Amino acid sequence: MTNPNQVAIVTGASRGIGAAIAERLARDGFTVAINYAGNTAEAEQLVRKIEAAGGRAITAQADVSDPEAVTRMFDAAEAAFGGVDVLVNNAGIMKLAPLADSDDGLFESQMAVNLKGTFNTLRLAARRLRSGGRIVNLSTSVVGLKLESYGVYAATKAAVEAMTGILSKELRGRSITVNAVAPGPTATDLFLNGKSDELIARMAKMNPLERLGTPSDIANAVAFLVGPDGGWINGQVLRANGGMI
Ligand code: NDP
């Protein structure tokens, strides 16, 4: 069980993997700020669910690609709870197309949310996280798999992995770890939307455990890295994918 005064911001936590991470961290004793872009109803519902289970949470609307909105989110969390100990950079979008067919909008939107969004929160966390804190960035196993049509998406996450290792060193002396979790196919809107049942079944069998990941599979990995047992892991990318790569 974590110190009850520890505060975690989880970006993109209104649904999918981020919601599972927020719920798990609240269960582990963190006070959680549930960031989201537009889905207020789902974020508020998650706060109520966490509170009903005895946890502490608030909603924190902010488009992570907007540095001023991210600053307001940190300000609000610090004002409400006195400081921030954990940042989980989970907010992300995925748009797939072969490079030949990728337009500027596909490139710019994913760069804005996945890379600039992560940069915006990392920069503030580097300045303001309390000593002993933890940072976890969400990458993807596609950085290793190199599947066709994932070019721009995987490129944003490869850049996130690069910043993960570098920030872990820049925070020398602060007792803050910085790691990434790189899921494989996980049953959320982001993965399932727009795919045929046949393609989903085929991708589920790409790992030797022969199933899709669940949001709680990924939340378990994040909980390890931000919890008491993960303190010696720093600057690493943990692929959570059932052994796909
Ligand atoms: P979902 O699409 O299910 O959920 C995305 C979440 O991100 C929502 O809470 C959404 O908020 C939020 N979000 C989107 N854009 C922004 C923004 N600009 N600012 C703030 N929040 C935003 O995604 P997943 O749960 O599947 O993915 C979570 C992370 O895991 C992503 O980084 C993704 O790249 C990564 N990942 C996912 C895999 C998968 O197979 N699912 C595999 C590998 C990595 P709102 O509800 O308000 O729109």
Characterization of this structure:
- The chain is of the alpha/beta class and 245 residues long.
- The chain has a single domain, classed as Rossmann fold, CATH 3.40.50.720.
- It is 46% helix and 15% strand.
- Strands 3-2-1-4-5-6-7 form a seven-stranded parallel sheet, with helices on both faces.
- The radius of gyration is 17 Å and the shape is globular.
- 44% of the residues are buried.
- The site of NADPH dihydro-nicotinamide-adenine-dinucleotide phosphate (NDP) has 33 residues, from helix 1, strand 2, helix 4 and helix 7.
Q: Which superfamily, in CATH terms, is the homologous superfamily? A: NAD(P)-binding Rossmann-like Domain
Could you spell the SSE succession in H and E letters?
EHEHEHEHEHHEHHHE
Return the CATH topology.
Rossmann fold
Overall CATH class: Alpha Beta
- The fraction of residues in strands falls at 5-15%
Instruction: Describe the largest sheet.
Output: 7 strands, parallel
List low-pLDDT spans: none
- Overall pLDDT, averaged? 97
Distance between the termini: 32 Å
Large-scale geometry: globular
- Please name the CATH architecture: 3-Layer(aba) Sandwich
> Count the helices. How many?
9
Radius of gyration: 17 Å
**Which strand order do you get reading across the main beta sheet?**
3-2-1-4-5-6-7
State the domain count: 1
Class inferred from helices and paired strands: alpha/beta
| Bound ligands | NADPH dihydro-nicotinamide-adenine-dinucleotide phosphate
The number of E-state strands comes to 7
Helix content: 40-55%
Protein name: 3-ketoacyl-ACP reductase
Family: Belongs to the short-chain dehydrogenases/reductases (SDR) family.
EC number: 1.1.1.100
Organism: Oleiagrimonas soli
